UniProtKB/TrEMBL annotation:
Its main location: membrane. Belongs to the EFR3 family. It comes from Bos mutus grunniens. Keywords: Cell membrane, Cytoplasm, Lipoprotein, Membrane, Palmitate, Phosphoprotein. This is Protein EFR3 homolog B. It is a lipid-anchor. Component of a complex required to localize phosphatidylinositol 4-kinase (PI4K) to the plasma membrane. The complex acts as a regulator of phosphatidylinositol 4-phosphate (PtdIns(4)P) synthesis. In the complex, EFR3B probably acts as the membrane-anchoring component. Also involved in responsiveness to G-protein-coupled receptors; it is however unclear whether this role is direct or indirect. One of its GO terms (biological process) is protein localization to plasma membrane. Component of a phosphatidylinositol 4-kinase (PI4K) complex, composed of PI4KA, EFR3 (EFR3A or EFR3B), TTC7 (TTC7A or TTC7B) and HYCC (HYCC1 or HYCC2). It comes from the Eukaryota. It is found in: Cell membrane; Cytoplasm, Cytosol.
Length: 755
């Protein structure tokens, strides 16, 4: 035993001498000595004695800190990478010795990296064969928190224990390694991290995985961030058939990494990231519908857990929102258009799947994508509504508002509110009420800009129409009416001028007529809700316009309702247990907001009284034909309406009218009335084809077909009939003169034609 101890001392003395010789060597002659030195270090590392391994590691670290001017072409560090990595995984029985060996292994790897990473002539430390050893060794020590750390050391020993913590040393080494990585080496450094997390099932707790990638994202150069994102996206695709918990962990890590990367440079991976996430959403929906990852259940097939897939879908949607919130406005707009283009719609250009499974898949896909769109649009700020809601996006978004599914319609309303609310007023309208003084809401109101005015001139009728149709839905619940109230209020605050205010009042009065006439056979709750919605909005807009007579009329009707019909006010309708009436027929005029009275009081304050007097009738568009709720009769009626407009019977020759100043003035004044008459005529045509018996519709269509055929026959007769013969005509049967074609060589020409 004493002999071994003496030998160990001799080894220590010899290595100390080698170290001093190494430090004393000049840079030009160090290569002559290094080979012998590294052989001695390798012998020590191969020893089974921990103290000799630690001694060899310390000597190697001293050597690694020496800067060499002359490169070495034949020096290899493969053995040292392997041996230091093995020491990082030490499982010695003694806890203190195990910690020292692991610390030495980490220091040795750090020395190898420092010695080789900046020298292109040395062995390439970024090769996969080296990275597959170095990175997992560092992650292993990051992952395993030593039992010694759980002890409570004395105050004097605390700093020493901190220095001897393998996890902290491994983290510093990993940060240094990644900080030195060039563009082409990022992939080789990240791939071992992903494999390590897979092999040790570290995605499911996801705490360690998130910690690792935070270290990575903060250590690499900012311009390399998108490479890490690409690696994570590829890994998510590779694990598309893994358990939902694993995929959810990858998505959570991706979320954290993407937010950090957005502060640097994400580059071209923005749409790629969203495309991958949306693809994973669609796959998850398929897994839920089929019940397996292979599309069919058979022996050996992994059966999915639906609640885990739901959690994964929510994680994806959350990631989409968190990443989009960090993007600049122009990129966020591109993402919004990209997501909307993926929503399946019942249009001619976007065919939807049929069958029960196809309908479920379409519905779930629509809901998930609209949820994602809502996450992206939340907090979206744009000074120009024309760029925030371009025509192609708004058309697709509003077409989903015509669908039967109540949840989808609610998402559309919430998305519109997110775009329009630019001053944070949305939460102030979360409760529908008739406040006597809206100043308590502390609304932030700005004057409508020129761009917003242009937007409303172009799209206002489209918005009004969808609000009107949404109010008529039988499946509406409390949340729908809250969203409708919020949308009306925000349009009034953000986008309103005098013309918009007039149209919104007409719209709400038309909604009141829907509740009163009840052609849609709405339940009592829906009718009371429409009355209450109109009262709340008119109370708000009257105080915003500050016209005393208008405010007085609205206040009088509300007070009358409080006394005689509280079930027509929001305070009794939009509560947990609505207090309704059993009969809404025969509502007296004192309980209604009168269009004639509102036109009179607002007309005296400079508003367009003529326009206020005209009832609102929604425009009909091709969206009715694309909506799932529309019947075949309505589709035919639109086609017949077009025919009736272009029919020759409708053509009347009107004598030319002299254009004067009075003529132009009359045309401008009457343009609104003519437009409303045209809409009324369209409504009557649609109503006729909805309610008329089938025999009457068939007879009408048959008559139109006969008329068309007769006109075609006349055209064909004119175009096909030969020219008249110079020889004259002959009389056919029934006394009808008939022209006969005579060959040219038999024709008799006048003498003047011959010369």
């Amino acid at each position: 035993m004493k002999t071994i101890t003496f030998l160990t001392r001799y080894v220590c003395i010899a290595m100390e001498a080698l170290d001093q010789l190494l430090m004393a060597c000049h840079c030009q002659s160090i290569n002559l000595f290094v080979e012998s030195f590294l052989k001695m270090v390798a012998k020590l590392l191969e020893s089974e004695k921990p103290n000799l391994q630690i001694l060899g590691t310390n000597s190697f670290v001293k050597f690694a800190n020496i800067e060499e001017d002359t490169p070495s072409y034949h020096r290899s560090y493969d053995f040292f990478v392997s041996r230091f990595s093995e020491m990082c995984h030490s499982s010695h029985e003694d806890l203190e010795i195990k910690t020292k060996i692991r610390m030495s292994g980490i220091k040795g790897l750090q020395g190898v990296v420092r010695k080789t990473v900046n020298d292109e002539l040395q062995a390439n430390i970024w090769d996969p064969q080296h990275m597959d050893k170095i990175v997992p060794s560092l992650l292993f020590n990051l992952q395993h928190v030593e039992e010694a750390e759980s002890r409570s050391p004395s105050p004097l020993q605390a700093p020493e224990k901190e220095k001897e913590n393998p996890a902290e040393l491994a983290e510093r080494c990993l940060r240094e390694l990644l900080g030195r990585a060039a563009f082409g080496n990022i992939k080789n450094a990240i791939k071992p991290v992903l494999i390590h997390l897979d092999n040790h099932s570290l995605w499911e707790p996801k705490v360690f995985a998130i910690r690792c990638f935070k270290i990575i994202m903060y250590s690499i150069q900012p311009q390399h961030s998108h490479l890490v994102i690409q690696q994570l996206l590829s890994h998510l695709d590779a694990n598309s058939r893994s358990a939902a918990t694993v995929r959810a962990g990858i998505v959570e890590v991706l979320s954290e990494a993407a937010v950090i990367a957005a502060t640097g440079s994400v580059g071209p991976t923005v749409l790629e990231m969203f495309n991958t996430l949306l693809r994973q959403l669609r796959l998850s929906i398929d897994y839920v519908l089929t019940g397996s990852y292979d599309g069919a259940i058979s022996l050996g097939t992994k059966i999915i857990k639906e609640h885990e897939e739901r959690m994964f879908q929510e994680a994806v949607i959350k990631t989409i929102g968190s990443f989009a919130s960090t993007l600049p406005t122009y990129q966020r707009s591109e993402v919004i258009l990209f997501i909307m283009s993926k929503v399946p719609l019942p249009s001619l250009h976007h065919p939807m799947e049929t069958g029960r499974t196809g309908e479920n898949r379409n519905r779930l896909t629509q809901i998930m994508l609209l949820k994602s769109l809502l996450q992206v649009s939340t907090g979206f700020q744009s000074n120009n509504m024309m760029s925030a809601l371009p025509s192609n996006f708004l058309d697709r978004l509003l077409s989903t508002a015509l669908m039967e599914d109540a949840e989808i319609r609610l998402f559309v309303l919430e998305i519109l509110i997110s775009f329009i609310d630019r001053h944070g007023n949305r939460h102030k309208f979360s409760t529908i009420s008739t406040l006597n003084d809206i100043s308590v809401l502390k609304l932030k109101v700005d004057k409508c800009s020129r761009q917003d005015t242009i937007f409303m001139k172009k799209h206002s009728q489209q918005l009004y129409r969808h609000i009107y149709l949404s109010c008529k839905e039988e499946t509406n619940i409390h949340k729908h009416y809250e969203a409708l109230y919020g949308l009306l209020a925000l349009i009034s605050i953000e986008l309103a001028n005098e013309e918009v205010v007039v149209d919104l009042i007409r719209l709400v009065l038309a909604v009141q007529d829907v509740a009163q006439v009840n052609e849609e056979n709405l339940p009592v709750y829906n009718r009371c809700a429409l009355y209450a919605l109109g009262a709340a909005y008119l109370n708000l807009i009257s105080q915003l316009t500050t016209v005393p007579a208008f405010c007085q009329h609205i206040h009088e009707v509300i007070e009358t309702r409080k006394k005689e019909a509280p079930y027509m006010l929001p305070e009794d309708v939009f509560v947990e247990r609505p207090r309704l009436t059993h009969n809404l027929d025969g509502v007296v005029i004192e309980l209604l907001f009168r269009q004639s009275k509102i036109s009179e009081v607002l007309g005296g304050s400079g508003y367009n009284a003529d326009r206020l007097c005209v009832p609102y009738i929604p425009q009909l568009t091709d969206e009715d034909r694309l909506s799932k709720r529309k019947s075949i009769g309505e589709t035919i009626s639109l086609q017949v309406e077009v025919e009736s407009r272009n029919s020759p019977e409708k053509e009347e020759r009107v004598p030319a009218e002299e254009i004067t100043y009075e003529t132009l003035k009359k045309a401008i004044v009457d343009s609104v009335a003519v437009e409303e008459q045209e809409r009324e005529r369209r409504r009557q045509v649609v109503e006729k084809f909805q309610k008329a018996p089938f025999e009457e519709i068939a007879a009408h269509c048959g008559a139109r077909a006969s008329l068309l055929q007769s006109k075609l026959n006349q055209i064909f007769e004119i175009t096909i009939r030969p020219p008249p013969s110079p020889s004259g005509t002959i009389t056919a049967a029934y006394g009808q003169p008939q022209n006969h074609s005579i060959p040219v060589y038999e024709m008799k020409f006048p003498d003047l034609c011959v010369y």
